[in-house]
């Protein structure tokens, strides 16, 4: 069976004055034969209007578009006592409001950052409370114990609040907050287990290290009351 290439095919009329757009390309009106609104044309119109929002010398000019930078979001912050606003990253703004967020595995580098932040906030004003929000899986034993010891040594009260989950040693930090200021969201999950970590040396040294870690955690957790076993 052969088909003639010169066969007369139905061609829709292109005399319509309405230009229909799909993205940035002009499409045939036959594509939109269902009668539905042309969302692509509406989207193109909004983008075109936002890009060319100004007029200079009777010609449209490209307007300025403010976009969020890639990476840590920046927020406007005004230092107390000053009238000017400045753009700072989100974590810096939270630190200035005495809010510390633990949302990752606790290692030595992250622990040192949290320690330095708490010590600085305590030196600025030791009468205000430091708020620690926890949503993490825990971390290494020694860095976590360093954070806990710093929390207990500060003059500033430290309140802890769980948002999401606090597993392993993150739950231990949650329990180390000020009495009466330890809380958790209704759907959060908290789980404590025996400390685990890597160590090298002779068997006698490893045994004494394990006994020391368990005794430290046991002494700190045992005075806490109203702990519910899940």
Overview features:
five-stranded parallel β-sheet; single chain; 2-enoyl-CoA Hydratase, Chain A, domain 1; alpha/beta; 11 strands; 230 residues; 20% strand; disordered N terminus
- CATH fold assignment of the domain at 74-221: 2-enoyl-CoA Hydratase, Chain A, domain 1
Helix content: 25-40%
User: Approximately how much beta-strand content do the residues carry?
Assistant: 15-25%
Mean pLDDT over all positions: 75
Largest sheet: 5 strands, parallel
Please count the beta strands (DSSP E, at least 2 residues each). Answer: 11
CATH level-1 class of the domain at 74-221:
Alpha Beta
Explain how this protein is built.
- By secondary structure, this protein is α/β, with parallel strands linked by helices.
- It has a domain at 74-221: 2-enoyl-CoA Hydratase, Chain A, domain 1, CATH 3.90.226.10.
- It has 6 helices and 11 strands.
- The chain has helices at residues 39-51, 90-96, 108-124, 141-153, 169-175, 203-221, and strands at residues 21-22, 25-26, 54-56, 59-61, 74-77, 86-89, 99-102, 130-136, 158-167, 182-184, 189-191.
- Strands 7, 8, 9, 10 and 11 form a 5-stranded parallel sheet that branches.
- α5 links the parallel β9 (158-167) and β10.
- α3 runs parallel beside α4 and α4 (141-153) runs parallel beside α5 (169-175).
- The chain starts with 20 loop residues before the first strand and ends in a 9-residue tail after the last helix.
């Amino acid at each position: 069976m052969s088909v003639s290439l010169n066969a007369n095919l139905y061609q829709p009329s292109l005399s319509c004055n309405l230009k229909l757009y799909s993205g940035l390309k002009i499409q045939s009106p036959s594509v939109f034969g269902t009668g539905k609104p042309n969302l692509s044309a509406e989207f193109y119109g909004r983008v075109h209007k936002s890009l060319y929002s100004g007029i200079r010398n009777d010609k449209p000019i490209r307007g300025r578009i403010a976009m969020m930078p890639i990476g840590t979001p920046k927020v406007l912050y005004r230092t107390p006592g000053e009238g000017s606003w400045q753009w700072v990253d989100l974590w810096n703004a939270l630190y200035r409001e005495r809010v510390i967020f633990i949302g990752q595995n606790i290692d030595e580098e992250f622990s040192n950052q949290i320690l330095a932040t708490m010590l600085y906030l305590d030196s600025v004003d030791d009468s205000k409370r430091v708020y620690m929000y926890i949503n993490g899986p825990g971390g290494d034993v020694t860095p976590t114990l360093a954070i806990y010891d710093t929390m207990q040594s500060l003059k500033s009260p430290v309140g802890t609040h769980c948002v999401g989950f606090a597993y392993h040693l993150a739950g231990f930090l949650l329990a180390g907050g000020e009495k009466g200021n330890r809380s958790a969201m209704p759907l959060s999950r908290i789980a404590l287990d025996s400390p685990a970590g890597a160590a090298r040396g002779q068997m006698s040294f490893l045994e004494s290290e394990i006994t020391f870690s368990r005794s430290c955690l046991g002494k700190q957790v045992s005075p806490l009351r109203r702990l519910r076993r899940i």
